[in-house]
């Protein structure tokens, strides 16, 4: 269902950037689950280039039971650009949740003006995809912008509305990168390294997918996938481990 989104992202990346494949820890790149009623395959890709220190995306194909396309693009720490975050989910055809955002590293006004305000026009063009839903797992004020795409929707809207929105948001993101001036002050660069690391820790601790991974591929695999691939700069919390 979301394969055209993955293909489009991939084409854009290869066309615009000089990508280098990055290794994915053994066993995490591809996995097949027979645990559920339906077989599910999870596959991931990882690259880097001078502009982006980590580009990762994952596709879960569980037939009609589950289709997921998830991606995070981390700019090189000499750019204070937001992360590009994509989470497109479909469970059993009826439950379709789509999220797409430029995930801000900082919340000051200058940052908002520079990176978030430019999203406003797109956001306003897609009111059906920007439903202002409440978040249960995450804090909407942390690492999310006010102009994100966040909708509970249907397959037709995914095809006819989300796909053009996806192209528009991606184009805007590449444009922001084009206009961004690389930082040279080591202090400023360190601040970005830290902010991206904090994002990983926050996201790993709250990721609503960990139960899904565990149910398909087992707890051990799920922990490894979360802390060694998806959010590799996060460390497992003692508390959250004992909770699980
Ligand atoms: C392969 C990894 C991966 C998967 C499969 C995944 C799935 C995933 N994301 C979810 C919600 C969500 N996901 C996001 C957003 C994001 N999530 C992101 O990983 C990114 C990059 C964004 C940013 C666009 C939001 C905002 C929600 C709703 C959570 C809430 O209500 O708090 C949910 C809960 C759906 C529900 O029952 O309501 C799942 C299972 N998350 C993952 O990280």
Care to give the gist of this entry?
By secondary structure, the protein is of the alpha+beta class.
Walkthrough of the structure:
The protein is an alpha+beta fold and 244 residues long. It has a single domain, classed as oxygen-dependent coproporphyrinogen oxidase (3-Layer(aba) Sandwich). Helices cover 41% and strands 24% of the residues. It has eight helices and eight strands, in the order H-E-E-E-E-E-E-E-H-H-E-H-H-H-H-H. Strands 1, 2, 3, 4, 5, 6, 7 and 8 form an eight-stranded antiparallel beta sheet that branches. The radius of gyration is 17 Å and the shape is globular. The C terminus is likely disordered. Biliverdine IX alpha (BLA) binds next to strand 5, strand 6 and strand 7. Belongs to the HY2 family. Pfam families: Fe_bilin_red. It is an enzyme of class 1 (oxidoreductase).
